[in-house]
Specification:
With about 160 residues, the protein is α+β, with helices and mostly antiparallel strands. It has three helices and six strands; from the N terminus they run ββαβββααβ. It has one domain: Nucleoside Triphosphate Pyrophosphohydrolase (Alpha-Beta Complex), CATH 3.90.79. The chain is globular.
Length: about 160
């Protein structure tokens, strides 16, 4: 069996929602730093930044605030370095490691499915360029498995 690429998705609402990790920018943080931090907090996994996957914008109604909230989220592709999904924080209910070829369909939100489509293009481009493998870079990923993390950050407008 060849290498299998997995995507770390967060589980919400009793596991009925699968999404990409994301969160708010802390004072003094750059977007890529926020993506790394939020990915670690929500998935228990640390990764090396591979590249930007662009932004998505969306809005939703907050019952708590009784108003419509607009958000813009920047996403980044990361390559697994260390950690365990068992160490996610309590903001999420769990972490699902989904095969890359099934992750897009598993995501609950259309915008995030589009982000994963961009990730697929980037991964294919890297595969064609002969980019270094996890083993060559000293990654601790389990044998035959490469974990991809798509971290993001949410910014209220």
């Amino acid at each position: 069996m060849g290498r299998q690429l997995l995507v770390a998705l967060i589980e919400l609402r009793g596991g009925t929602v699968l999404a990409l990790p994301k969160g708010h920018i802390e004072p003094g943080e750059q977007p890529d730093e926020t993506a790394r931090r939020e990915t670690f907090e929500e998935t228990g996994l640390r990764g090396d930044l591979i590249g930007s996957l662009g932004d998505i914008s969306y809005s939703f109604y907050s019952r708590e605030r009784r108003m419509r909230i607009a958000k813009r989220v920047a996403f980044f592709l990361m390559h697994y370095r260390a950690g365990s999904p068992a160490h996610h924080n309590d903001e999420v209910e769990g972490v699902a490691l989904v095969p890359f070829d099934r992750a897009q369909a598993a995501l609950s939100y259309r915008g995030e499915r589009e982000v994963l489509g961009r990730a697929e293009e980037l991964v294919r481009g890297l595969a064609g360029s002969g980019a270094s493998t996890a083993k060559e870079r000293g990654s601790a990923a389990p044998s035959g498995v490469a974990l991809l993390e798509l971290g993001g950050l949410a910014c209220s407008r």
